[in-house]
Amino acid sequence: MKQLILAVGLGALSGMAMAANPLSVHVLNLETGVPSSGVEVTLEQHVGPNWQMLAHGTTNEQGRIGELFPAGRTFEQGEYRVVFKTGDYYQRVGHETFFPEIPVIFKVRNTDQHYHIPLLLSPYGFSTYRGS
Q1: Distance CA 120, CA 30 (A)
Q2: Using only C-alpha atoms, what is the Rg of the chain?
Q3: What values do phi and psi take at 111, rounded to 5?
Q4: Which of 35, 56, 74, 94 could form a disulfide with 42 if both were Cys (CB 3.0 to 4.6 A apart)?
């Protein structure tokens, strides 16, 4: 009986994972060593020769947007672009920056996977990678 309950529980967890939002972002300030809250972020999809706006959000106190992909929309294969509005962020905190925006273009091949885009940020440099 315990095995049956465990199997049902794992199935429910698997279904919850599949229903989770497929895209999240995280911004960390390398100069201060703390998360960057209040960074505006947009999500666009490459459609033909153009970029189509899908969603936008603002990083929370932990520097995160946990659910950037719009609810109710199908997550499709293709190219996407996340644009971090770093100029606005640095202006608000009273600091100069060389990069007013940081676009990160990435390709989605497996729509059943989660995509996490961290941005490690400083006024004159940045780094990003595919996180988990």
Answers
A1: 6
A2: 17
A3: -75, -10
A4: 56
pLDDT over 60 (residue 16): no
Residue 1 falls inside a structural domain: no
> Comparing C-alpha atoms, which of 127, 132, 121 is closest to residue 38?
121
57 forms beta bridges with 41
CATH, residue 55: 2.60.40.180
pLDDT tens readout for residues 40-92: 999 999 999 999 999 999 999 999 999 999 999 999 999 999 999 999 999 99
Q: How many domains does the chain have?
A: 1
Distance between CA 51 and CA 46 in Å, rounded?
5
> Is 115 among the annotated ligand-binding positions?
no
Among 115, 103, 41, 128, which Cα is nearest to 78's? 115
Domain span at residue 50 reads: 22-128
* 73 assigned binding-site residue: no
In a domain, 99, yes or no: yes
Of 119, 52, 41, the residue nearest 80 (C-alpha): 52
